[in-house]
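Researcher: Good morning. I'm working through a list of sequences from a screen, and I'd like to move beyond sequence-only analysis. For each chain I'm collecting a predicted structure so we can compare shapes side by side. This is the next one on the list. No need for commentary yet; just the structure.
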Amino acid sequence: METRDPIRMKAANKLRIIVADDHDIVRKGLCYLLARRKEIEVAGEARNGRDVLALVEEVRPDIAILDIAMPLLNGIDAAAQISRQFPETKTILLSMHSDEDYLLRAMNAGVKGYLLKDTVEEDLDNAIDAVRRNKPFFSQAIAEILLEEHLQELKAKGLQDSFDLLTNREKEILQLLAEGRSNKEVAQLLNLSTLTVETHRSNLMQKLNLHNTAEIVLYAVRKKIIS
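Model: Good morning. Structure tokens for this chain:
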């Protein structure tokens, strides 16, 4: 585990990011990409999930970029612990996997960004900019893959996409919820009561057969409502 002086970094008022990957060439490559931006400081590096937790506790970074397949503690479980213990630190996951199970596990762990390794160079800057604003970000390739899988599933079952069953207000609320806003925040933005938002949320989830916030986000990614 490699760290840098957190006091000096705080004084610099830069976006503090740590990088965790057990492959040195990948980790160093990510650090190189991050170092191109003057407003970013690489606050530390780790080679496994246990070191990540210690590093987050020591440095308290704004963002932690984690490989999904790390030794000692995988990226999803590490992200879950970071989300519980250090909620001010947002997590971005790097993965070779684009299937729905991994995405749901990641979102339930509190992951804000999910990037495929083969497109990380083109997606990294946009992911950081979104996550620093507390918005989710997913590689574009993920949305395309999920949409194709979704359409094939609907075709196999002889069903139609239920998105068009939503009212305009429900579509509006769906996007805001997928962007990570709470019922109260949605109510304030739309000048509605919290109870009205909760009713719309319940209705749209029933129409789309969604059961929790993670599934709302995943559906929005699949439909390209959010990145």
